[in-house]
Structures are given as C-alpha cells and as structure tokens.
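User: I've been trying to design a sequence by hand for this structure and keep getting stuck. Would you show me what you'd pick, starting by listing the structure so we're on the same page?

Assistant: Good idea, let's start from the same input. This is the structure you sent:
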C-alpha cells in the first residue's frame, strides 16, 4: 500500500550538510569493530517556508556496508544534492526517482529524502508518523548490546539495561563469542526476549556452532552470513530452529522479495538508511505484512533526527517485534534535538509534532559539527 496521502512539492532553495562527531557514552563493539565517537552527516533542506532535517547514517569506516562518511560527503556534494537542487518543484515521493540514476549510496539518498520529507510535512503541518501510516503513539524499545570484555561483563551490562526497563535485549556475537555469551545471558535472566546479531561474521562452515544457539529460544539470529550470501542463508535457515533475520542483505524492496522467495529470511530488520529511504522502508513493510512476515526497525546509532523518524516508522502495523529504538541516553550524553527520546515503561514515544516531530538544538548541533557546506540553487 503506497503512502495514502502524498505531500505537496517544496521549492528547495539549498541544502546544508554537516559532519558531526558525537561522543558515545561507552564504546560500542560489534563483530566488525569498536566505535567511541559516532561520525554522522546531518542534512538541512532549506526552503522559503522553513527547513527540513535528515540524517545520513554512514559510519566513519566502510565496515558495516560499503558506505562510509567521507564517501557519503563526497557523493552528496558532488552528485546527489546538485541533482535534487536541479529537479524543480520536489515532492518527497519523487526524491528516490530523481536520485535513481546514481548507483548505490542508499544511506545518502535516505538522508536527503528525509530532509525533503520533513520540510514538506512541516509546511503542511503534518507529522511523519501520520504520513507513513503509524497506528501507535509509542513503540516498545529494544536495546543493542555490544560485545563486552567477557560473559560476566556482558551479564552486568545487560542487567543495567533490563533495570532501565528495555523490552528486548539484542547481543552482538562473533566467532568464539557466541554460545558462551548467549548462555550466560539466558542463565542470568531466564526467558527475557533475546536475540543475537552476527553482522555477517560467519560462513556456512560454522553451521554447527550456529545450530547450538537453537537451545536458547532466541527471537531470531540476525545476519549470520555475508551480505550477498542469500542462497547460503536459505541453506542455513533450513538447518536452524532459530528464525534467520536479514539486515545487511536487504537493500531494497526487491531484495526483500527475492530473499523471502528463496527462504533466506523469515523476519526482516528494516532500516531506512540501508534501503535508501523511509518510503522504500514502508514498501518493505508492506510486502512483508502481506506475506505475514514480521518486521522490526533497526538502528544505526541515530541522533535525535533519525531516532524520531525511526519511531514513526516502527509505529506501522507490521512492526510486530521491538526495534533497536532505545533512549538517546543509551548512546549520547547530549543529543542535537531539544527533546531526545526517553524510555517510558519500556517504550519510546512516537513524536507527533509536524515533520519528524522534534526540534534541533542549534547550540548542541554547532558544538559537534566538524565540517559544514551549503549548496544553493
Ligand atoms: O540501537 O541504534 C542502535 C544500534 C543498533 O546494533 C545496532 N546497529 O548492525 O544493526 C547493526 C548496528 C549498527 C550500528 C550497524 C551502526 C552499523 C552502524
């Protein structure tokens, strides 16, 4: 089901791009590396009626996918932003088509599209949640827990998040840090909603280790194999009782349809950045809902901009599992929005103000800005 009520076009006068360096409250370690500072790009769409904000969720290094911040900065300034500025009156639903000739760079496209969406919806006094088709005003909040020093440290970290009230725990795993870590968390906390994320650290040769995870009654195992290992994921899924959930592999609605047809995934992590925008994310939600496939909203350590938009997306009816939409304080001591997401009874509120529904804190934004460029028509 496409967007029920499209937005009117905006006249884009310019686009401001900023690279931010946001210090993390604690290091975040996955199978591909450790981050202590989140490097991210914020987009501001400038119009005569006001601004719109978006976020390009690339990381500093191309370790999660081929995209990374300096590459995103270059392609945004050199190609994608000029194409948008040349496109004439711009309805948000047309952004993807304008950018379509440029291959890849989905995170950049998503950030630009969100800024246009925010500007267009603010001009119409509509919320992104309403526009996308949200059916809830709050969403259950899951937390993603990075690899810790050892299983005992992991248990203590998880305990802290459970005490805060998080509705679901996801732990990162990698070869050598899988069965033991998962067992420690299960033993310490019994039947909590628990899932694991490998960030593509395994191959089919690890099938027996991955099958050992079946005894922990996990909600799912996320992206065990490489991004393009669709057939191998299907073979693995046949062998496991734990549902296989693809993240990195699902780069579009088409990729989702194909992976489902091959039996490579039975749950999908939807991330707007990874798939090129919130509209493509809704399209994936729609095909999955029709097929009876549960989806949940992933996270990319978003600032308050992307976090607000993710909460709106996660409020759609097919998002039946808790997402990685934690409180801003899970990652940041100071966010760049005036009302950062907070945890209330294990949930995060869906912002219902105009556009993404949160306002930028200009001082906080300036304090973490390390580069800034403005392109005008
Ligand atoms: O809550 O925002 C969050 C983080 C969730 O673990 C998380 N994200 O692989 O899904 C992932 C991982 C990630 C974060 C990947 C940043 C790439 C960059």
């Amino acid at each position: 089901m496409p967007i029920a009520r499209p937005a009117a076009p905006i006249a884009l006068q310019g686009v401001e791009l900023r690279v931010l360096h946001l210090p993390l409250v604690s290091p975040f370690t996955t199978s591909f590396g450790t981050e202590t500072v989140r490097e991210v790009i914020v987009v501001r769409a400038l119009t005569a009626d006001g601004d719109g904000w978006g976020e390009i969720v690339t990381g500093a290094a191309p370790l999660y996918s081929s995209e990374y911040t300096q590459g995103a900065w270059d392609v945004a300034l050199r190609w994608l932003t000029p194409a948008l500025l040349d496109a004439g009156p711009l309805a948000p639903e047309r952004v993807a088509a304008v950018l379509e000739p440029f291959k890849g760079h989905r995170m950049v496209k998503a950030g630009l599209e969100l800024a246009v969406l925010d500007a267009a919806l603010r001009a119409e006094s509509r919320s992104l949640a309403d526009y996308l088709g949200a059916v809830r005003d709050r969403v259950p909040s899951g937390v993603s827990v990075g690899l810790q020093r050892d299983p005992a440290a992991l248990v203590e970290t998880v305990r802290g998040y459970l005490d805060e009230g998080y509705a679901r725990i996801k732990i990162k795993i990698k070869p050598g840090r899988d069965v033991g870590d998962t067992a420690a968390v299960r033993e310490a906390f019994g039947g909590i909603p628990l899932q694991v994320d490998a960030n593509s650290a395994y191959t089919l040769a690890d099938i027996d280790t991955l099958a050992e995870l079946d005894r922990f009654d996990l909600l799912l195992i996320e992206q065990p194999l490489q991004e393009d290992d669709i057939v191998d994921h299907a073979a693995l899924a046949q062998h496991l009782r734990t549902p296989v959930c693809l993240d990195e592999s699902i780069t579009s609605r088409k990729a989702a349809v194909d992976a489902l047809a091959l039996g490579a995934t039975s749950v999908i992590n939807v991330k707007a950045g990874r798939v090129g925008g919130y509209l493509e994310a809704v399209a994936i939600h729609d095909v999955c809902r029709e097929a009876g496939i549960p989806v949940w909203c992933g996270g990319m350590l978003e600032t308050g901009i992307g976090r607000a938009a993710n909460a709106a997306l996660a409020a759609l009816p097919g998002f039946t599992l808790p997402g990685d939409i934690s409180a801003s304080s899970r990652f940041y001591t100071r966010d760049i929005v005036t009302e950062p997401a907070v945890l209330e009874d294990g949930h995060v509120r869906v912002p219902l103000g105009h556009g993404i529904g949160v306002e930028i804190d200009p001082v906080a934004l300036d304090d973490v800005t390390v580069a800034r460029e403005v392109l005008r028509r």
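That's my pick for every position. To get oriented when you compare it with your attempt: The domain at 12-125+361-376 is CATH 3.30.390.10 (Enolase-like; domain 1). The mean pLDDT is 97.
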